[in-house]
Amino acid sequence: MTVVILFAAAPCRAQSVSDFGTAIEDYFTNWFPRVTQIQSEQPHWITPLVTVTPRLEEEVRYDQFFESMRDGVATDNFGAGKGIELIPFQNTEVIVGIPGFLKRNIPRNTDGFADWPFLIKYRLLSANEENGNYIVTAFMGFSVPTGSNVNGNGHGIFTPTLAAGKGFGDFDVQSTVGVAFPSGGLDRLGMPLAWNTTFQYRLFKYFWPEFETNYTWQSYGADTGHSTLYLTPGMVIGRIPIHDRVGLTFGAGEQVAVTMHRTYNHNVVLTARIPF
Questions:
Q1: Strand-pair partners of 118
Q2: Looking at the chain, which runs of residues are DSSP E strands?
Q3: pLDDT per residue as tens digits for the range 161-189
């Protein structure tokens, strides 16, 4: 009897393994058609320079910062924590950043990598340009404290964020608001609230002049009550087709501090992206 049961069960197990393999194959085979369908349900604006877009994107991204600080200190940030952005499931995007490398002119021996950043987006509401031209998305960002003593935070940081956007013809507004919660070192790191807003206008299909406000308010720690506001004019150009789904987007802008309390005064931002 036992032999009969084993022989009867064997085809079932084989079929189960085969079905699982087929499901995995179908998942990757249908990746790009699935992404196209998901993105067709949202507006087709461009991703801003600083503000994280509420839209779901699939691309490889590299940013470069040139920050001018006090007392003649200049910091170059290679990568700025950007990396690869993927849409693995309906309404979901995962961003795996690459730790930025920070290089300073002074003091010496302070160069090194920052922490390792990640971000998960979940799109709550959306409509493309023909059906309302809006989007609402929830984020959960977190960083792993892999950075060096000078360039890392020393603790993990979790940043829940709510993002939204609305388009009016060729004009759109995208905005995010979130609070950072460190896993330790609260007196030093605090719990900063960040509110970024971008105003964009589309010109001649590929040109997106923009103006951003990047505001931070410190709600805890040594800097409690201090606010920092940067104004960021810029231009993003894209998405320029290269081949099939692959395109090119690039842009530049400058963050200028308008408050006395600030980390830096000028920050030249360069960005290059390959959406696919």
A1: 96, 142
A2: 59-68, 74-79, 83-89, 92-97, 101-104, 112-113, 116-127, 134-144, 157-168, 171-179, 181-182, 192-201, 207-218, 227-243, 246-257, 266-275
A3: 999 999 999 999 999 999 999 999 999 99
Please report how many Cα atoms fall inside a 13 Å half-sphere around the Cα of residue 248, on the Cβ side: 5
- Tokens representing 273 are 């992206």
CB contact at 8 A, 165 and 142: no
AA identity, residue 209: P
Q: What residues contact 3, with CB distance under 8 A and at least 6 apart?
A: none
Cα–Cα nearest to 47, from 5, 82, 9: 82
Across residues 99-111, what is the average pLDDT? 90
Distance of CA 177 to the CA centre of its chain: 13
Provide the Cα torsion 41, 173, 96, 238; round to 10°.
80
Upstream peptide bond of 104 is cis (omega within 30 degrees of 0): no
Closest CA to 157 of 169, 172, 167, 147: 147
Rounded alpha-carbon distances, angstroms, from residue 146 to 100, 101, 108, 119, 221: 11, 12, 21, 16, 23
